[in-house]
Amino acid sequence: QVHLVESGGGSVQAGGSLRLSCAASASTFSSYAMGWFRQAPGKEREFVAVISYSGGSTFYADSVKGRFTIARDNAKKSVFLQMNSLKPEDTAVYYCAADRQLWRVDVTTMASTDFGSWGQGTQVTVSS
What we know:
By secondary structure, the protein is mainly β. About 0% of the residues lie in helices and about 50% in strands. A hairpin with a 6-residue loop joins strand 4 and strand 5.
């Protein structure tokens, strides 16, 4: 189990930017793929982005592709989500999550059930 703490959420106008951070406690952080998910009020949790354990592979939901960038710093045991050109429909609670499996190579087909540790979430609100 990996303890995860998100930060960086807030309120921003449409077209603005935010950078989310997720700090992990595990010494094995560099062994896990990491993902970002979000959940809007009244909606199911949805996938946003994932990054492989090495950072060499990333995958995005179509809704955020070209606007959001996921990155990680294994030395600092952190993963980030840079969100640009934000839209009101990006409003949600954003969660980071750690893979259940170590050293996963292919992150493009991961489902939410592949992630075993979750943070408490950080609110992002985008106004029009």
